[in-house]
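[job 4471] stage=fold_predict status=RUNNING
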Amino acid sequence: MFKKLKTKWGIESNFQLIIIFIVFGLTGSASVRFGEPVLSFFSITPDLFKDFSLGYAIYFILRLVVIFPIYQILLIFFGTIFFQFKFFWEFEKKILKKMGIKI
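[job 4471] inference complete, writing structure tokens
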């Protein structure tokens, strides 16, 4: 399984693969952690939607929308800290290209 990932991503060493997994883990955790404070900064809390049917679902979807750009920024940030900027920049371009955003 790891050989397949290494080939697909153009990675040569197991150490680099471990670093990439660490970056993905840190990025995911940090982006979820930053989602609520960013929404709170704009005074958007779950209580704001309590009068709507499916109010918490609306808040959750809004939080996901906010988390996505945070994730993209943090992915490049952590990738750079762990000396994997080139890999994550190419990865980022692929993701954005699939979404129809050209860089």
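[job 4471] summary: The chain has one domain: 13-98.
[job 4471] exit 0
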